[in-house]
Design a protein that fits this description.
By secondary structure, the protein is of the alpha+beta class. The protein has nine helices and 19 strands.
């Protein structure tokens, strides 16, 4: 964190660098691949030993036993009832499996992994000294960083969210899923003090994540969360692999449909300067149907949010009730109420993106 604090214009908000002066400009630069985003709220976990992949594969939701050097994926650790306990990005360099977890989950995940070692030839180490930087692949930013390569392979994780992974399944029934443009990557850098701008803060990175409907452990997960509710099966669950904790719930809900809750994307009324906050209640008429999990100001769409809703929440306009006012919200269904492999859901058109000045929500 100290090395990133020294970057010109860095403005901290707790444990993160929120921005470098203008979050909306930073979003544009990040999305175009020009900016680097210091990730001070992620932690690197090193998993070494010759049994590491088969060992991980035995209890996580994803299939990792055959990962090759340079492969990226992500995993979930579920409890016996199929609820999400931990989540992490996974990068294999041929000698080590590197996990990237949200800061609030990393120590708990590492401790849980260590308890699962038993006689396996595996060592789990938290690398809290590692500097992590996010960027969008294919732009100038990637060429400005020097990724660590402890075993000869650059440590760069490529987010698998951009497409449905082998063994996965997408519940979102839309043409033009926003994840297709989400070329998010995370690099472990040798020396953060050598990085050059432009830089983007967490406000920019989170806005682009929310716009891509991408769930995150620190925001979309609570004590009730199962993978189906946030469409996480598309990238973090392999439906055809062998036994693991929570598999029965995963298979049952996927085959029969009807997860108890569902993630939705909200386009919020931008006519008021008030921004709601995660945790604010969502209403359909006067009935509370859910709550916000993530909120951001997007450089094209204006105020946007992700919300976890009851399965019975109606499809249509909703109301977000913040401390200060009620905010109208147009709803985009991400996970249908009858999500599952037996569901026959008509494909919808994703709500269009317009420049802020042309958005009818901001008119008059």
């Amino acid at each position: 964190m100290a090395a990133f604090d020294a970057l010109p214009g860095a403005v901290r908000d707790g444990d993160v660098i929120a921005h470098f002066g203008n979050p909306l400009i930073e979003q544009r630069q990040l999305a175009s691949g020009d900016a680097l985003a210091p990730l001070t709220d992620r932690v690197l976990i090193e998993v070494t030993g010759e049994d590491r992949l088969t060992w991980l594969d035995s209890f996580i939701s994803q299939s990792v036993a055959r990962l090759r050097a340079g492969d990226s994926t992500e995993l979930l650790v579920l409890d016996p009832q199929g609820r999400v306990e931990h989540a992490a990005a996974v990068f294999e360099d041929g000698t080590t499996a590197w996990l990237i977890a949200d800061d609030a989950d990393a120590e708990k995940l590492a401790a849980w992994l260590q308890r699962m070692v038993f006689r396996s030839r595996v060592t789990v180490t938290v690398r809290s000294d590692a500097a992590l930087v996010g960027f969008f692949a294919g732009g100038a930013a990637e060429g400005r960083l020097s990724a660590a390569a402890l075993n000869g392979v650059p440590l760069i994780w490529r987010d698998p969210w951009h497409e449905v992974q082998p063994g996965g399944h997408q519940y979102a029934s839309v043409e033009g899923h926003p994840a297709a443009d989400y070329a998010w990557s995370v690099a472990v850098v040798d020396d953060a003090t050598t990085l050059t701008g432009p830089f983007a803060g967490s406000l920019a990175a989170e806005a682009l994540r929310i716009a891509a409907w991408r769930p995150r452990w620190s925001t979309e997960v609570d004590e009730r969360t199962i993978p189906h509710e946030s469409d996480w099966i598309r990238s973090a669950v392999h439906l055809n692999k062998g036994c693991y904790r929570g598999q029965e719930t995963v298979a049952k809900v996927h085959n029969l449909g009807h997860p108890p809750r569902r993630l939705a994307a909200l386009l919020l009324d931008g006519s008021d300067v008030v921004m709601p906050a995660p945790g604010d209640a969502v209403f359909a008429d006067e009935v509370e149907v859910g709550h916000l999990t993530s909120v951001a100001m997007h450089y094209e769409d204006g105020p946007i949010a992700l919300a976890i809703l009851s399965r019975r929440a109606p499809v249509g306009e909703l109301i977000v009730r913040s401390r200060e006012t009620d905010i109208a919200a147009a709803q985009q269904v991400i996970v249908p109420a009858d999500a599952g492999s037996t569901a026959d859901v008509p494909r919808l058109t994703r709500l269009s993106r317009r420049p802020l000045g042309d958005d009818p929500r901001n008119a008059g």
